[in-house]
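Hi everyone,

Forwarding the result from last night's run.
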Amino acid sequence: MVTELSLNTVCGHTTKVVATKEGKKTHVHIKTTCEKLRKWGTQFDMEMKDLMGGPDTTLAQKMAEAPLTPTCLVPAAVMNACWLENGMISKNLARDMGKMEIIFDKLE
């Protein structure tokens, strides 16, 4: 199985996160127009312990080595893709929703 998520963010970059379950690991491939993300890493594996979050995870190590802005949605997209790929979020529910949004309701 494969899970793909696309991001169009306020920074103007486009990013696609692809997660593929391969045995006990989930392989993540990121296709992006963002140079910071390319330095952060575009191909890596996530183990089940990484999907629970915390300071000793693959994403935490990546953030320590090559920090992204606090507003970057890619780490959350990686987690969502991995959770979907591992059955921790229902693919049917995600398919029915179609998208998640941040809506800028009021900007004065």
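The longest helix spans residues 74-85.

Cheers,
N.
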